[in-house]
Structures are given as C-alpha cells and as structure tokens.
C-alpha cells in the first residue's frame, strides 16, 4: 500500500486501541488483530474487501469509528454482525 497506506494503518490501529472490544479483520483466510500495527501492515492492501469482527462492551461505537476510517482511506470493509 503506497504512501498514505502507512497513515491509514497507524490511524486504524490507534483508533482500535481506544476500545475495549476485540477487533479482528478478516481478509481471505487471514485473521488480524486490528490493534496490531504489524498485523495491519502485512495484510492491508488497496484492493480487496475486508470483514470486520467486533465483540465487546463498546462494539457498536468501535464498528462505527472503524467503518468511517476505512471509508476515509478508500478501503472496503464489511461489518460482520452477530447472528
């Protein structure tokens, strides 16, 4: 992910770390802890659609915040809702 990608990774990870909920990004067969900058760096690419799994006491707020950040950086994300 060129140039602005590092900004996206840092902003997404910092935002995720503000929440108590578990936040996991799924891309193909990989599951990455969104609070891990290294995990995001090795997974986040310009193309592709990510599934975001959020579970915990502040999950709704985390989903909203992260969805906005992904959109801001032109990354496609689907929020996986509990069934």
Describe this protein's structure.
- This protein has 3 helices and 4 strands, in the order H-E-E-H-E-H-E.
- 41% of the residues lie in helices and 27% in strands.
- The protein is an alpha+beta fold and 83 residues long.
- Helix 1 runs antiparallel to helix 3 (59-72).
- It has one domain: Histidine-containing Protein, Chain: A (2-Layer Sandwich), CATH 3.30.1340.
- The mean pLDDT is 90.
- The chain has helices spanning 4-16, 37-43, 59-72; strands at 22-27, 30-33, 49-55, 76-80.
Quick recap:
This is HPr family phosphocarrier protein. The chain has helices spanning 4-16, 37-43, 59-72; strands spanning 22-27, 30-33, 49-55, 76-80.
Can you give the mean pLDDT? Answer: 90
Stretches where pLDDT is under 50 for at least 5 consecutive residues are none
Morphology: globular
Q: Largest sheet, described in full?
A: 4 strands, mixed
| Order of helical and strand elements | HEEHEHE
Report the C-alpha radius of gyration, rounded.
Answer: 11 Å
